[in-house]
Amino acid sequence: MKNFSSQSHQNHQNPPTQDPNQEDRSSPKFEWDFCVSAVVSSSVTGGHISDTLGVIEVNSSGNLFATGGIARKIRVYSLNSLLSSIGAEVTLSDHVTACHYCICTPAKLSSLKWKPTSAGRVMGSADYDGVVTEYDLETKMPVFERDEHSGRRVWSMDYSHWDPMVGASGADDGTMQMWDPRHDGGKCVAKVVFGSPVCCVEFSPFGGPLVAVGCADRKAYVYDVRNIVDPVAVFDGHQRTVSYTRFMDDHTVVTSGTDGCLKLWDIDKQHTIRTYKGHTNQRRFVGLSIWRNQGLIGCGSESNQVFVYDKRWGEPIWVHGFEPEGGSRCEDGFVSSICWSQGGEDECTLVGGGSDGVVKIFSGKRKSITKR
């Protein structure tokens, strides 16, 4: 779990011009101003683990986000409404103000994804009971369910952008399974057996046929869904479990490990471009998200902080503590989930969630640079 304490990393040294895919050993340039724009406080006091947020997902329009976790609830919020009350703190018990609507689920949630073909109406979820479920967000009822991981905990699920009806899930049973509701009621159409728990599955968000998988065997893999037999890339460089995989672009992938570092990989050359260090991560899922427009990386930390990295530098460009204002401190608190809104060029929005159920919304703005 992660703990929160406020600090900002600022450095005004200008890095030399170079290929962005080459190692840059200069100090990071602080090009962005970040601030807390809204806070949603948990109704659970004392930082109790019963409301730990395991996942946050912002929709493609950037106007809604959903949370899931230990509380067995999918909560959907209006991002625009919360940002309109900048600086205000609202409680989850005040659903009129904070939570747009809520869906109770039968098990603890580990993963959520908005289904690309549903115009924001359907959300997929994965849970601790080994079940993948799709919910109709208008009726708040399940419309599809599959239980093919032998009851083992499903850590991650995602939808393909190559064929948006296809989904994939990774679980403690050591498999990544692809499925299609159009075929045999959603039975497995392709399976990869890794022999160790699969912690993350992400399809390329750029419409290509690639899927990235992170495993407890300390490796990450990239497969072409058209030929799922052999990986097109194997990333071997983490010292411990690979908990997250995220595409930066068509040619690079960011991985997060419980060895306390992030790595940027070249898919074609299968080597590390850059390693990012500063956050603390030894045993928890702390979240990982990429703002692809400007190459910013967000992650949580077991030090109860949110970290932002620029893909060009290995040191963080901004760090923010998650300590509650005027509230009791959770000794084992940690930042457990992170998600960027993908809109904007010079302004951005990052949503973070904590082990105490608190949600913080951060707004970022590029600093104006005076030309000489």
Can you walk through the features of this model?
The chain is mainly beta and 372 residues long. It has a single domain, classed as 7 Propeller (Methylamine Dehydrogenase, Chain H). Helices cover 2% and strands 46% of the residues. The strands form 7 sheets. It has a 5-stranded mixed beta sheet, with no helix packed on it. Strands 2-3-4-6 form a 4-stranded antiparallel beta sheet. The protein has a 4-stranded antiparallel beta sheet with strand order 7-8-9-10, with no helix packed on it. The radius of gyration is 19 Å and the shape is globular.
Structurally, the number of domains stands at 1
Radius of gyration: 19 Å
User: So what's the overall shape?
Assistant: globular
CATH homologous group name: YVTN repeat-like/Quinoprotein amine dehydrogenase
Overall structural class, as computed from helix and strand content, comes to: mainly beta
Could you estimate the helical fraction of the residues in percent?
A: under 10%
CATH top level? Answer: Mainly Beta
Number of strands: 29
Distance between the termini: 46 Å
User: Which residue ranges are poorly predicted, with pLDDT under 50 across at least 5 consecutive positions?
Assistant: 1-21, 89-96
Query: Could you tell me the mean pLDDT?
Result: 87
Multimeric organization = single chain
| Strand arrangement across the biggest beta sheet | 5-1-29-28-27
Strand content: over 45%
Q: Figure out the total of helices.
A: 1
Per CATH, what is the topology? Methylamine Dehydrogenase, Chain H
CATH architecture assignment: 7 Propeller
